[in-house]
Amino acid sequence: xxxxxxxxxxxxxxxxxxxxxxxxxxxxxxxxxxxxxxxLSMFSWDGASAPVFVGAGNFIRLAxxxxxxxxxxxxxxxxxxxxxxxxxxxxxxxxxxxxxxPAFSRIFLFFYLMPVMVSEICIGxxxxxxxxxxFGLVNAGLKAIGLDxxxxxxxxxxxxxxxxxxxxxxxxxxxxxxxxxxxxVRSVPESVYEAAALDGAGHFxxxxxxxxxxxxxxxxxxxLLAIIGSLKTFSLVFVLTNGGPNHASEVVSTYLYxxxxxxxxxxxxATVGFAQMVLTAIGAWIIFRYLARTRFARGTA
Length: 301
What we know:
Layout: H1 2-40, E1 43-44, E2 52-53, H2 57-63, H3 66-100, H4 105-117, H5 120-130, H6 137-144, H7 161-186, H8 190-198, H9 203-214, H10 216-231, H11 235-240, H12 252-262, H13 266-300
Antiparallel strand pairs: 1-2
């Protein structure tokens, strides 16, 4: 027993030695910034003068801030669109690539992954050009097919700015989930599909009754990634609209940026960021638990 205990201790020390650099990075770049943001959220600070302690004043202000809740609602809408137009659509595309057109799957995967390989800033600048009301490709395409009445300043009008941003996000991140789902669908045993084919099942029934249940872990993980990414999205919104016009496409991250580096309210910006982190963690936990229960229900039905 003593020899086994000594061996276990040596293994633990070796594991801690290898884990120490990663733990230090987590503490330095995750735990400390989060703790500092929580501390700073209790102060009023402009970034230059001495911080003034306000206690829960920033959180009380946040609770009654309509712009914050408007921005949070936009984040939730982005998350909902990500589930539909990124995760679910990617699963359908992945099934088609693996089961229907496997010979061309690599070619299609390359094109789907191109936006993922390009910087989000470049993607945003490209789409700003495409949405340009005077010489953009979107309005030019509408004019070419006789839909002149639909031409407009997509990023400059309150009615269309947020929708235009959501389209860009869906286009940008779709390829990542297609790649992940392609690997998941390929892992499904071929014998299962062959048995379904013998029973006369078509592609629709195979997709609903076989593919979705057997890749449910991937659906859950990708949904979690999409929701977390949607709740902290910043780059594309900042480049395309900077939250405008008139806060029509404002999200929490752009609102935080404006409070911190536009109005120089660093304490309140820290409060917004801290609240964003907490709400993102809660939302991710709820979705993860819900999807887990859904799988349990499907398995016991």
